[in-house]
Structure formats: C-alpha cells, structure tokens
Design brief:
Structural class: alpha/beta
Largest sheet: 8 strands, mixed
Number of helices: 17
Shape: globular
Radius of gyration: 25 Å
Strand content: 15-25%
Oligomer: single chain
Number of strands: 14
C-alpha cells in the first residue's frame, strides 16, 4: 500500500451470518448503486460462511464436536474423516447458493477440494507422527485448530472475490491463512507482506479473517481472531475508519424483547460503553481489538450491512454531550457466594477465590463483598462451578459455599450522572411486579447492574428500557440510593 491511500481507505469486517447473505451484500454494501469510482478504497475482512466454523471446530453454542474435536478424541480415526467430508459438502453448498456462472462454480469447487485434501493429508501425517512415543498429539492441537479454522475464511474470501470479479469489480483475494507457506511470520509481518503490492484506490482486497502468525491468534482469542486481524490491519494501514457490518444496528435493546418500534439506534457511543457491553456478552468488538484501534487513533463504526446508506453507530473516545441511558441488556449468570464468619479482618480470601476461578477458566462478570461474605457473579456452567465449589471447600472447610442461577440486567451509558438510574431502575422493577436481589452502581457512572432471578431477566429488561429509555429522562431526579443495594 502506498502512503497516498493511507488516510482515505476504510477497513471493513463482515461477520459469518451476514456472509451467508453474500448476494444481498453484493447488491447493497459491496456494489449496490455505487459508481465505479466509488467502489474502491475499501478493504473487506470476511468471516467464514455461517455454520462452517462450527463444522470445522465445534458448535459454538451446543458444543457438538466438529472436525477438530473429533480429531482430538477419535481413536478410530474415522469420524473426523467423515466430518471433513461434510465440511467440503457444506462449503460447496454455500458457494453454489451464491455463484451463478459455471466457471466460477468449478473454480470454487476446485479450491475447496484442494484445501480439504491438503488439510486431510496434514492431519493423517500428524496422526502417523504421533504414533511414535517421541511425539504427543496434544502438543500440536493448537496448530491443528488454527489450520482447520483458516479453511473457512479462505473459502469465503475466495468465493467473494469470484462473485465480485464476475460483476466487474477489480477484487483481489488476500489469503492471510499461511496455506503451504514457509516460515512463521508475526501478524504484522503477515499483513505487511500481503499488502505490499496492493493499491486499495484501484482494487478491492477481500481478506481472510483468520491470519496464521507466530503469535497464534486462537491461543488467546479463540474464535474472536477475525476481529483481531481486522483491527490490526486497520491500525497498520492507518485506515480512515474501521467498520464492522452486522445484520442489525447497535441499538438500545434487543428488538425481539421490547419491539422494533421501541428500540433506538445509538448513533454514537464510546469505547467505555463498548467494554461494558463486552463484559455482558453483547460484544460490539473484542476488547483487545478495540484497544488496538483506540491506540492507533482509528475510529470504529458499527453498521447494518443491509442498510448501506445508514451511517450506523460511531464508537470513539469522546464523552457524551448529555447524560443518558443508552442500552439495557442482560446476561444469565451464576452467583458463587462464600460466607465464613471468621473472614472479617483476615486477608487472603479474595485472592484464593480468584485463583480457583482462574484455574477453572471461569469469567467474572461482577462481584460484591461485605465483612464476611464474598459473592462473585459468574458466566459459566453449573458443572464447572461444582468443581470450583469443591476446591473452595477444601481450602475453607468451615465456609458456607453456595451457587445460584440468576440473571444480571444492566443499564449502560457514557454518562449516567444526575439521572438516579439506580433509584428509578429499582422502582421500575418493583412496578413490574419483580424483585431485585441486588443492585450496584460504580462511581464512574457508566453502568448500573441489577441482580434478579433467572426467569425475571426478560421482563426486567422490558421494564427498565421503558422507564429509562422510552420515557423522557427525569429532569429533576430524586436523590440516588447508595452505590450498593
């Protein structure tokens, strides 16, 4: 890339669900009604087609094993072969629903066959190697996971390039997956080498969301790697803007809960709000990807991919012009309560609990404590929490340790000062016939959290959205409650 394009191009990411509607994207976002001169100075980072990564690795929600999980656990060495065949079929079905021209279909089929054949040969060789006692399969599973995952993004990027070229766009397939590549470049080196001869002003790069690199993206980010690739590419090339295209606008609430007419598009927010949303499982962007963009001074925008004329929501570092609740959302959690009468005045309890939670890879959403009780609100399964309980019971045999399935509902905004969100939120919850088990508000005034029974989450979200967003904010709010209730 040349310096003349460094401040004029955008780097844009398309997620897997949207990619499955690629023909619609061609007619809206990618080409639409644009003049030929307006097609370029846009770099697209694409995810695999919807469902493909689930087949390659494991189902993200159900945990049903894909090729990777079966390869790791299948002693008979047959199941993963069958699943790899299923991946090839699914890939061909995906691009057959998108490509029209026979030559493009043949080329896409050839691409899939070549990649699947290569991956199969690699896994067979790895199994043979690990048949010898000097080599252990578990030592190579990280690289295996990356190899398999990269197949999905390479396929979708290649298909997108074919579709656009057939429509007259000067699109270029940019493969960062390291396929049959020698060496072990860093992520920055991988990106710089791939873009060394690319001019976004005259061509449209279609880039794989997965990038093979020495850092091993999946080891730290697992399936969030595409946002890391996207953000690093935007930062390295000093993009004018980084844009994430979703199937919906970043809005004040889930329209399925409160109704499409009730939600409001944010339009503008900041990274602080984005971080709170990520903590609540409503991830606008991976926190570390956001950090990369923030440090590089590249603004982030979230848009609806199928409404290309709508500017979407800009995420930057600027404060709000006025105080307001921007989003109400919720998350299923499990509370872990450790009570011991002798805890008061004794150091070390909190550190020991955190150590056990880290060892079992349990994510902490929030926490509260008093003189003799520490309660963590966690995002994890009850099965895992049972192991945590067992370890804590060994550490503190006199403690009462309990877990409970609850929900956390939060009101989030860049500036909540002066709005008495805690007071008004509790009143709205009570008026809906619900009971808040707990509520917290930090001194930074960016979020207020309400703890409720698991079954009360959705009605509580509706009540809070109605009271705090749909109705005008109180101009003269009553005094706020204390920061913990």
């Amino acid at each position: 890339m040349t310096d003349t394009t460094r401040q004029t191009h955008t780097v844009e990411k398309i997620g897997g669900t949207s990619m499955s509607r690629l023909r619609e994207l061609r007619d809206t976002l990618l080409i639409g009604t644009r003049k030929p001169t307006d097609l370029y100075n846009r770099v697209f980072v694409v995810s695999a087609f919807g469902g493909i990564t689930n087949l390659l690795l494991e189902h993200k929600k159900s945990g049903e094993p894909g090729v990777y999980a079966s390869f790791a656990n299948d002693d008979t060495a047959h199941r993963w072969h069958d699943q790899l065949d299923r991946v090839a079929e699914a890939m061909k079905e995906a691009h057959a629903a998108i490509l029209d021209h026979k030559a493009d279909l043949l080329e896409a089929d050839r691409f899939v066959d070549e990649r699947i054949h290569g991956a199969r040969g690699c896994l067979i060789d790895l199994q043979r190697l690990c048949a010898y006692g000097h080599f252990r399969l578990d030592q190579h599973m990280g690289q295996t996971r990356e190899l398999l995952s990269g197949l999905g993004e390479a396929h979708s990027a290649f298909t997108t390039t074919l579709l656009l070229q057939r429509a007259g766009v000067n699109a270029r397939f940019v493969d960062l997956s390291g396929w049959r590549d020698e060496g072990n470049a860093s992520l920055d080196e991988r990106i710089r080498d791939a873009f060394a001869g690319i001019d976004p002003a005259s061509e449209m790069p279609i880039v794989t969301g997965y990038a093979q690199c020495a850092e091993g993206l999946m080891g730290e980010y697992d399936r969030g790697y595409s946002e890391v690739t996207f953000s690093r590419l935007a930062a390295l090339t000093q993009a004018r803007e980084a844009i994430i295209h979703k199937e919906f606008h970043l809005s004040s609430c889930d329209p399925n809960l409160v109704g499409a007419d009730a939600v409001r598009k944010l339009g503008r927010t900041n990274h602080d709000v984005a971080d709170q949303l990520s903590n609540l499982g409503m991830e606008a962007i991976h926190p570390k990807a956001a950090k990369t963009l923030r440090q590089a001074g590249v603004p982030l925008r979230v848009t609806n991919a199928f409404e290309p004329d709508d500017p979407g929501t800009l995420i930057d570092d600027l404060p709000a012009d006025s105080a307001a609740v921007e989003i109400v959302t919720g998350l299923d959690i499990v509370s872990l309560e450790v009570f011991e009468q002798d805890m008061v005045g004794v150091k070390g309890y909190d550190a020991a609990i955190l150590d056990v939670l880290a060892r079992h890879n349990v994510r902490i959403v929030s926490k509260v404590s008093n003189a003799n009780t520490i309660t963590h609100y966690l995002d994890g399964s009850l099965k895992t929490l049972r192991r945590v309980e067992k370890d804590l019971a060994t550490l503190y045999p006199a403690a009462e340790i309990t877990t409970r399935r609850l929900s956390l509902v939060a009101a989030v905004g860049r500036d909540l000062s002066g709005l008495s969100v805690l007071t008004r939120g509790l009143q709205a919850i009570a008026a809906a016939g619900l009971e808040a088990i707990g509520a917290t508000q930090g001194p930074r005034n960016v979020d207020v959290q309400f703890i409720l029974d698991r079954d009360d989450m959705e009605p509580a979200i509706r009540a809070l959205h109605s009271a705090l967003i749909e109705k005008p904010q109180a101009q003269s709010a009553p005094p706020a409650l204390s920061h913990a209730a």
